[in-house]
Amino acid sequence: MNGNRTRLFDVAVIGAGMAGMATSLFAARRDLSCVQVGNGGGILFASGLLDLLGVHPVADRRRWDCPFEALSSLRRDLPDHPLARVGDDALRAAFEAFVSELGAVGLPYAPLDGANHPVLTSIGTVKTTYAVPRSMMAGVEMMRSRPSCLLVDFRGLREFSARQVVAKIGADWPGLHSVRVEFPGFEAVSELYAAHLARAIESAATRDSVAERVRPLLGDATAVGFPAVLGLSRSGEVHERLQQSLGLPVFEIPTMPTSVPGLRLKDAMEAALAAWRVVRHVQAKVTKVSFDDDVATLSLDDVPGGQTIRARSVVLATGRFTGGGLSAGRGHVSERVLDLPVHQPGTRGEWHRRDFLDPAGHPVNRAGLATDGDFRPLSADGRPAWHRLFATGSILAHQDWMREKCGSGLAIGTAWTAVEAISRGLQAPRKAG
Amino acid sequence: METQVLIIGGGVTGTAVARDLALRGVDCILVEKDDVNAGASGRNHGLLHSGARYVAHDQDAATECRIEGDILKRVASRAIQDTGGYFVAVQGDDEKYVGDFPGFCARAGITARPVDVATARAREPAISDKAIAVYEVPDASVDPFRLSLESMAQARSLGARLMRRTRVVGFEREGREIRAAVVQDGTNGTTQRVHVSQVMNAAGAWAREVAQLAGAPIEMLYSKGTLLVTHGRLARRVINRLRPPGNADILMPGGTVSILGTTSSRVEDLRDIHPTVDEVDLILREATPMLPPLETMRIIRAYAGVRPLVGSPSGSDGRTVSRGFALFDHEADGLSNFATITGGKLTTCRLMAERAADLVCRRLGVTRPCLTASDPIPVSPECEWTEPGRAPRSWMSALHVDDPLICECEMVSGSVLDALYQALRAAGDTPTLTDIGLRSRIGKGACQGAFCAVRAVAHLYQNGDFQGSRGLDEIVDFFRERWGGQHAVLWGQQLAQAELMEALHCGLFGEELR
Amino acid sequence: MSASSFRIAVYIALGLCALGLLWRLSAWLRVRIGPDARAIPFHRRLASALHGAFSFAFSRRLPGVLKAFLLDVLLQRRLFAEAKVRWLGHLLILLGFTALLLMHALAALLTQKLFKGYQPTLDPYLFLRNVFGAMAVAGIVLVIAGRRRAQRVAPTAHRLGDRVFVALLSIVMVSGFLLEAQKIASPAAFQRMVDEYFGEDISPEDLSALKAAWAVDYGVAFEDAAADPDPALLETGRELHKDACASCHSLPTSAFVSYPVSRVMGPAVRPLDDVDAAKWLWYLHVFACLLGLAVLPFTRLFHAISDPVSLLVNGAASSRPLSDAGRASRRALAIDACVRCGLCDTRCSVAPIARFMNNASLLPSHKLLSTFRFAREGRGRLRDGARYDRIAEGAFLCSSCGRCTERCPVGLGLDDLWTAQRDDLAAAGHPAAAKWVQSRTASEWADLLPAPPGEGPAVAPLSSDRRTFSPCVQCQTCTNVCPVVAHTAGAGDGVDLTPQKVMNLLRLGMVDLALGSRMVWDCATCYQCQEHCPEGIRVTDVMLELRQSAYRRLATVRDRRRPE
Question: Which runs of E-coded beta strand occur in B231-337?
């Protein structure tokens, strides 16, 4: 790693959540040399489903079957929304690229068809999403046609009760049934953890044993749903084999974090970045960034005494409060790495609504970094803080990804657009002034 | 329905009255519009006052606290942790008050032992290095939920009946006598008549409303107090500020957490009582000079209760109004079998009940003596789960193969959930997640229900206890209740926690769209 | 000293050295470390060693040994990978010292016979001697400096023999240079040479001319030397020098160390001549050399034998697992092959704890010595007392991360030694704390292990600081990535607490319940949890700290030697 001290990177990405991963990936694909700093914690919270835009306006709880129609409505209503600044073509291209990269490292997604899909969640609600992992796609088809279908859960996996899902939507889906089985090998423990099951089921013996336990319970089912524990690095193979041995389509149901699809996504993104030769500092935090005319210098704390990285452009993809990009004191919200100005409600009393589930959403969720059209964060004087400093993902202001169901779209779309701008800027000589 | 005594209000006073009457062999029904301790009884410090807080301005109240505190430590020992307490003055506090304090305590018969500051700080490192005087007093902490639940359990074992989620909507009066009360079931809206000989209004802050229904006016003030819950326990003892009573004077050890408060502000409307951002900030601002670690402490929750104060206002915040209790016989209002007991403090709830029961018994012609000061409250297994740390200890000592934890933060397992569910069920109730939350530590930890509510609901569905959408509706109710205490403390790590909760329940599960 | 008495001294030194070597080498078959080794008699180990050597001789493993000899023994590639400065220092000492030994010390046996016209005062020999000497001295300085730097991280163990060796080596080098410097500038030495070469056949004029030349060109400190000699006289002297002396004496500037030293000595030279300093320096030089030779087996220099043997045995090792006897001997060899370079200490994952607990017995270099002492002194002498406790603490707080073995520049199988040490301790009535811990449940331990007075931030800085765990958002990532939980659950026997439950108990102020938990004691310290934690909580570090706290408390429980 000593070489990194003198190497000048084209792009330094701070953050390793969905936005940081997407930004690094897109930059590397454009042959920009890229270094990424930050641990991969944030992406672990992902569900594996890649939303584009599902709900708008949130106060009306309006769901959309077509995300691009939702986008045109969003562009009219919320012109400052980060997604309103990403074109449809860019979004399509970005998602295609992202999903194909994941497929290349063994995490296949169902082909994108421009439409949103309904996905059954582990508590029995239906989520609207855009890109669906192949292992969950049969569930989407079942949701639409609602034939006879069996949901399986494992005793000890505390967050998921198949019986609950059936109780919740069984009235509208008469052919839906549930069974609970013991996970082979884990009969003697009371609490199961999804990742452990996912690793265990990669062994053929365990997989066959699961199939044997489920087979007599199939009844007239035409498909079988499992909690999302069907393998980690070899999930494609596990899914395929399980379908073969049960002789029916099998689908996964996304579960609470930390979920196996989140771990898969993390592993897959790491593999993709490695393939694209992105240099990563996983156990490091950026303690300081200094800028001169053309080069930014990032100070890291991963080795005693610290080390520095030099880059021609910097992307902040540090996320929000859970990710650590924003921090909130009792008085106001601040940006953690560069102390950039944060667009935010006036006082803490205005941050949250009195009802957690208020459909209008909490105003603090729309706090964040205000940027120009290239996603360059603005300093207090309204001009870009540095000519090649960008921000991507949930740290951006004027969006509420949790309510709008646009988290991945935000990360992937803004990453794509920012990388395009970086690429343009690095090719063109810097204009005077 | 018919009973000798109808008790209105299931707080610490109402349940104590039920216990008192039951011990004297009097048949009673307790109606509670919500749940046990749903009002101020469950929204206070949980401080068993030594009385030292009142020595300067109300010697009687101080002495009363001392005597009642000793009784409760004896009869309700499981609900009480004899933590001891410190009174701490810091630089800038009123030195005359500090100087007078030991004398006042002596006069009220309260032991106040001076402790040198270094020793006190060694024992309680949270105390500021700017402390100038420390006294040790016999304060203790009391779990008001356990106290009320155990009192009620004893009363029920002696024949008393509890009707939760039942509201009194009217009285049928004949002359000076109330013949029946009309009560309404809050779940399905049905009403029924309860024929009564005597009515005891123990509705706390709502006592004025109830008395009005009976045609008896009471003059009452409402003082709202807000408290904060810290992420971990900051001190072993009760830490009081040694100054004339003011805001944020007391830090209580609440088992695994600390509880800091309170504020006092006059309110007129009892609906929609919730802690505000300004109150939270005021508490931290006021308390930090005595307890500097609060500046960076993660606050997981705030809650607010309303103190019913009886008497006329002489100050703006209600703090100067007597904290003593009032027992109205309403004879002057033309009522012969209706009485109101209100005001007072958690520490004196037994005494209030004794006086109230004395009045009722006199009216009924019952001559049996009060036994509540001498007979300890017996153990009720289903009441022990409100105690912080009880669930983890029990779970760790058994380590059942099939007893997964439902609430990880407070380590409450499935068997506890089942036991509470079954106990409520056996009493003819339809238990909700919120009911179980009140009787255990579920949802009281850092995640404030984000993860455990999902596990609890999955567990209850799996048991067949929940059908249809009910579990998800209950998650929403549970969150609504928890959020009321959260939204004013959302900064720092707790905001990150809340964001994760929203990412999960809105981002993934879309619960706001239902 | 006469030639014969010198020879006698050499023989005595050689004899002592040989006896010492025999004793030290036999230790590889005698010293028993670990209960398994104690069951194996000497003759079986001897047989095993002979068998190993024999089977090697008829195997195809020679290339492996040659490779090991070249890369590991000569080029020291392992040291190079770990510590460049010390590698350079070591190489300089090795080359310089060996070259001096061969060219200078064994001149009569080797150099004189190989190179006609060898004279110690003639170039290139004069120059090379200085080069080799300077290399050795520079090497010593570099090694000491490198060691000092490592010491700042962790204090490395040392033995008396280490210091003796460094002291003797330094004496040999310094006395050698001083002797040479004294001889260069000494008028007495000049006079002796003139007497030996010319006898009476030199005129006073020629002598003064020669003296003038030597005073100027060689810096001999004649009492009557003119500051500015007559050029004609100097010219004559130089001519004479060319005829008589030059064939044996190169210019002293070739002695680029000794000559400047002689210039510095300047006016002190004549007084030193008066006390025959050259003779005494020679005695010192030779005595230090012979003493070094005599005690060689008991100094650090023994590693010149033990290390190559160890490395070559590694290189020759077949893929088959070692026999018990072979393993026992390898352990004994490892004790001798350790040079206490301390690189293991700087890499040790519990080094920060050692510093914090002020117990160096946690560090590998110290543990190696305590392992040996335990084996040598027997169990009786160590059984009781504070020293024993500290050694046991070191043995059982080891996280078994294997970094010491991985990084050892001489390729010692340290992890096997630590296992043997723990078994020894267990056999001596002090079983592994983890074993103890499993004799009761965490809940029972919580009652049995009261917090000793003074516990708190001072001894448990992480677990007693709420900032450590207050960022926890209950996501359970730590548990999901924990191989210990996964493995034990899959084996049908779950751990009692998951990592995130341990964090929770800290928040609940119920750390007592965690101390005796299997999670804390089974933790593999793989750091997966810590590396994955989205909130950056030091989960693994907390586990290790809890293990220490528990260990301390265990040590206070009186009946700890009697697990049920």
Answer: 238-241, 250-254, 257-261, 265-267, 299-310, 325-328
